[in-house]
Amino acid sequence: MMKTQSRGRLGGVPSERTVSSLLLTFIIGMCCVHALEMSTGKVPFLDAVNGSTVLLPCTYASCIGITNLYFKWEFNNNGTMQKMADSVIPTDNVEPNKVNIYRERVEYVGSSKGNNISILLWNITFEDAGIYICFGKNPKEKGKNHSAIFTLHVVEELREVDNTLTKIIASCVGGFIALLMAFMLLKNLTLFVLAKIEEKNKECLVTSSGNDNTENGGLSGSKSTPKKA
């Protein structure tokens, strides 16, 4: 009898502890699919003038935390990857002990408090144009690598955006709106004048009708009674 009850419990609804454990495992598993994310911003490219200083942005995020996060910046020079900077961040909100710089005119400006590992590139030249890669590796993820790409375009001068078409469209839209407002104003004014004219016509009809009744009454009352012979 006891064995039957035990089997019934095993085959029944799982306990709350089992459900909680399964849910926690599922959440951790989903989180670990993309535990570390590298990002170079919503707009991962830039047009910069030759000789200027540019920021190469990069941030990281991890839902499981970091331990000895290794990061580096690389430049894709016609298929050859050139290391620009690298370092190791011991843990969350702790600055890297030392950032190694492997290229001139490069400066590390990141901060672990904001999960920021951005760098500055000073006095850029046309040779600096190309693809930059922000790489990250978190040992907690057992060897998984993550990266984000930022593209730099170097130009002699920034082109002025031709707003002629935009101005034409804006002028047409503005003119149409003004014409529509004038039409509505004229329509309302016309309706107002017609209403006043109709109101005056009604007053005239009422006055004329009253006058006719008065005249008819006076004429009937002024008739003399013929004298008897």
Structure at a glance:
Helices cover 37% and strands 29% of the residues. The protein has helices at residues 2-10, 16-33, 164-221; strands spanning 36-39, 45-49, 54-56, 59-62, 67-77, 80-91, 100-101, 106-108, 119-121, 130-137, 145-155.
Walk me through what this model shows.
This protein is an alpha+beta fold. It has three helices and eleven strands; from the N terminus they run H-H-E-E-E-E-E-E-E-E-E-E-E-H. The strands form three sheets. The chain has a six-stranded mixed β-sheet with strand order 2-11-10-5-6-7, with no helix packed on it. A three-stranded antiparallel β-sheet has the order 3-9-8, with no helix packed on it. The longest helix is centred in the last third of the chain and has 58 residues, at 164-221. The radius of gyration is 43 Å and the shape is elongated. The model is unreliable at 1-10 (pLDDT under 50).
Helix content: 25-40%
Biggest β-sheet: strands ordered side by side in the sheet: 2-11-10-5-6-7
Please state the structural category.
alpha+beta
In this structure, how is the largest beta sheet organized?
6 strands, mixed
- Contiguous runs where pLDDT drops below 50 for at least 5 residues: 1-10
What is the tally of beta strands?
Answer: 11
Number of helices: 3
Strand content: 25-35%
What's the alpha carbon Rg, rounded to whole Å? 43 Å
Q: End-to-end span in angstroms?
A: 143 Å
Q: Report the mean per-residue pLDDT as an integer.
A: 83
- What is the helix/strand order? HHEEEEEEEEEEEH
Shape: elongated
